[in-house]
Amino acid sequence: MRRPTADPAEAARTTPCCTKVGLKRGPWTPEEDELLANYIKKEGGGRWRTLPKRAGLLRCGKSCRLRWMNYLRPSVKRGQIAPDEEDLILRLHRLLGNRWSLIAGRIPGRTDNEIKNYWNTHLSKRLVSQGIDPRTHRPLNPNQLPSHLKASSSSSSKVNPGASTATIPNPNVKLAASSSSGQITAAGKENHYQTENQGVLRSNGEDDEDINNCNDDVFSSFLNSLINEDAFASQNPLQQLTNGIAQADALVSITASTFGLAQQDWNFNQNDHERVNGHLN
DNA sequence: AACCCGGACAACCGCAATTAA
DNA sequence: TTTAATTGCGGTTGTCCGGGT
């Protein structure tokens, strides 16, 4: 990464916007930040490919977008992740897996990159030290599971063997979930930056007519109900585990029906999970 | 003081999804 | 309907910096 692409063969393999000779790479200078921020304040974001030229920057569009999204946006909150934010990240990750943009969309002022970094450097390691698999949020050693949970783990195998793939087990669902709350639809792009992060568990601010808000509202409110359960936080780890399985079950069922996951796909994933569980046990 | 090591984070890459022509 | 361009996402890595030796 971040290596110069002087080699033509290498350059041919990489995306065009990053291979133009003379484009700057690496850390941004305050001057560049100012140029970019001022330009976007005046002209707005979007059209990233041509933005650098218009703004007088020697950067590729991707780099500009990333810098704006992760650092320069006024709504970006800097500083330590608060304990309640941390708790929210943990819960959302258990439900959504590595869907960083989805998670970030529900934590005001935090970016997907920031959450991803925080997860990889702090939370993931902490879970491992507690004997919990950070991918599945289950005990690393299956023997730590009480017998009744071991038995139910196969019957509830529609819950993820790994949250990252099983809570929303199908690419179709990823699409549905993304368009509902994480990714920005074309129609929603215009006001995305102004209105996003207006509240926890609110979608990113698309106009109600912009997207299929039926799905959005259902997904959002359902997720909301899951992660806001006060009872959840006060439960002991075993109860949390049990509850988590039940919740994930419910999430998967609702997600599948609400977001149009084909039944055959769903069955496939169930089988898939059982196969994985079989390997685990 | 110099060096090494590891943690934290910013930035890049490749790919997939979406949009426009 | 097809194709090209653009955008967004997640995984990965380079760089910086502080602490330890």
From TrEMBL:
The keyword Metal-binding does not apply. It is found in: Nucleus. Keywords: DNA-binding, Nucleus. Residues 20-72, 73-123 form the Myb-like domain. Its main location: nucleus. The keyword Nucleus applies. Residues 132-196 are annotated as: Disordered. InterPro entries: Homeodomain-like_sf (IPR009057), Myb_dom (IPR017930), Myb_TF_plants (IPR015495), SANT/Myb (IPR001005). SUPFAM superfamilies: Homeodomain-like. It holds the Pfam family Myb_DNA-binding. Coiled coil: none annotated. It comes from the Eukaryota. Residues 20-72, 73-127 form the HTH myb-type domain. Residues 158-170 have a biased composition (Polar residues). This is Uncharacterized protein. It comes from Hibiscus sabdariffa (roselle).
